[in-house]
Amino acid sequence: MCFDTDSAPPVAPVAGASVSHDHLTLQAADGNELSAFLATPEEPTATGVVILPDVRGLYRFYEELALRLAENGHMALALDYFGRTAGTGTRDDEFEYGPHVEQTTDDGVQADTRAAVEQLRAAGATSIVSLGFCFGGRASWVAAASGHGLAGAIGFYGSPTRQRGGPSVVERAHDIKGAILALQAGDDQGITADDNAAFERALTDAGIEHEIVVYDGAPHSFFDRKQEAFAEASEDAWRRTLAFITRHA
């Protein structure tokens, strides 16, 4: 599990910022309907962010994260993975996501990601970055190799070597378009230093602009308001995230 149901992004609201938000139902090219949450800054912007959640899909952590991004001047759309197996609409904290995760495929997740990208483009975004966490961290990097025309892809504690519904990110490195930012946990029991080193080699060999940052001692899912011991790592990761989005806008 990446986050508890009462977790929240370790990012303070921007005082005085005005944003709007909407719950949407999108349709992918294969006909799948999926839930999404869109946050839009008051001032027009050409920058969009597709948020790819952890294994639980869309819930309030990612809605709040979308709001924080919008307060910083970026349209942000968080999507849900489980339209094909669980339908659309809100779910309670008891939702058993595990069986639905096992039924996901890269083709399905990327079809949904493309629908999110198209929604942002229709709203005026001309430069789009993906941002994912855990399951979504890997999916974010896969998105950069899936022909969506992304400017870049950010992943928090994603696995670059895991084959989950498709080839690993390392195996797809030569298909990646756009820059890559990896924000990894040094004490992650599921993603090792060897995994990160393999990612570094693959991106370098493919000539991809990239940065892999490993926060020593930080656990998987350190980016959480409740993880006060790792507030410094979270602050640095958020700063890098915003700088990456701005740099590649």
Shape call = globular
Q: What spatial order of strands do you see in the largest sheet?
A: 1-2-4-3-5-6-7-8
Which ranges are low-confidence, i.e. pLDDT below 50, for 5 or more consecutive residues? none
Largest beta-sheet details: 8 strands, mixed
Strand content: 15-25%
Structure commentary:
The chain has 249 residues and is of the alpha/beta class. The chain is built from seven helices and eight strands; from the N terminus they run E-E-E-H-E-H-H-H-E-H-E-E-H-E-H. It has an eight-stranded mixed sheet, with helices on both faces. The two termini are 32 Å apart. 52% of the residues are buried. The mean pLDDT is 96.
Layout of SSEs?
Blueprint: E1 19-27, E2 33-41, E3 47-52, H1 60-71, E4 75-79, H2 83-86, H3 98-102, H4 106-122, E5 127-133, H5 135-144, E6 152-156, E7 179-185, H6 193-205, E8 210-215, H7 231-247
Parallel strand pairs: 3-4, 3-5, 5-6, 6-7, 7-8
Antiparallel strand pairs: 1-2, 2-4
Concise synopsis of the structure shown:
By secondary structure, the protein is of the alpha/beta class.
What labels describe this entry?
249 residues; alpha/beta; eight-stranded mixed beta sheet; 22% strand
